Amino acid sequence: MSMLELGYASFPILLLMIFLRAPIGLAMLLCGIGGLYFSMGGSNMFMAKLKSETYSTFSSYSLSIIPMFLLMGQFATLSGMSKALFKAAESWLGHRKGGVAMAAVGACAGFGAICGSSLATAATMSKVALPELRRYGYSGGFSTATLAAGGTLGILIPPSVILVIYAILTEQNIAKLFLAAFVPGILAAIGYIITISIYVRVNPKAAGTREPIPYAERFKALIDVWPVLLVFGLVVGGIYLGWFTPTEGAAVGAAGTGVIALLSGSLTWKIFVDSILQTALSTAMIFFIVLGAGLYNSFLALSQVPQELSGWVVGQGFSPWTILILILAFYLVFGCLMDSLSMILLTIPIFFPVISSLDFGMSPEHVAIWFGILVLIVVEVGLITPPVGMNLFIINAMDRQTAMKDTYKAVLWFVTSDIVRVIILVLFPAITLFLLPG
Length: 438
Fold this sequence. Notes:
Elements: H1 3-19, H2 24-40, H3 44-58, H4 65-78, H5 81-93, H6 99-112, H7 118-135, H8 140-151, H9 161-170, H10 174-202, H11 215-223, H12 226-240, H13 246-263, H14 269-303, H15 305-315, H16 320-334, H17 340-356, H18 364-382, H19 390-398, H20 404-427, H21 430-433
């Protein structure tokens, strides 16, 4: 069997291992080791590669941004920022039809700006918003679907751990990717709010009402979110103004949220240690997946699969737009079965060379950034797409009273909103790119 044939044969083996519930990092690691062993006829190559790949992965300066953003999210959760964000949004929107659900989406968007993790955003905001949604008569399925969809804003609105991984894989500028994600992130939040508005008119019994609160209380609640604005402005503003690199910005953000949590009185020594341990566990999981993907992608590069696939696709005579749509459709389908990080690590080394070889009438850098945002959005849709949307399981684990089928029915409205947004961003790349310099 030739090396190219070995490369193609590895895909069904990898998928079989994933469907048998093997951890995705372990599955990719074993496929990479096995591929290198059989293609080189011995263990010397994969042992050398395992040593070099492990060192380069775990000593990467660029990857050090990930634990910093994860720690920032941990401290932000402890300091009460999530509760302040929800109360501020609820005070201004809660009296409207579906307003408490809209407030939950707005709070998710704000928390995503200082968290960078979809699952953490969904889990944190659920603790704050679910009791209020129940209190004001919102149906269980509508409530859980709203929070699952709102949680996806955590990986789209900068800073985003997934965007950092994409930037490293494609050798793009992290700050420019963050800037490009800003407008699509705002569009996502607006799209979800419009979806809620339509849903409660089609299903009026799904949402209760509450009385408006005085403007004095509204402005007081707005003032209480100053820590979020401070951290977001310091981190994202500092990166764009050139005060520090993205990695330094993440460290500043983690330190800033830690100080705020300490001043709020919620950061005890035990909680601090737990936050460090939780960050370490999440980082280890991500790094192990990155290591497995690195070894597997090294084997694929050696077997020439990405290059052959890119040449074959271009040789078929399909238009660049047709190829882009097929790739995005692939992500939508597989997003129902795999988590977002695994999909990015597994597919970008294969699909990115294909996209880079096509002419979309833009510079290579703009194509890479635009494609990255599109991929991030369709991967985000996978987090709330039945049957294996990770956010759906996170939310339903926190609300055992609601049947999963009720969440599935309601979340399809938000999936439709996401698909409409993808179509708009595909048709009008300038929406994603107009903030970029040059």
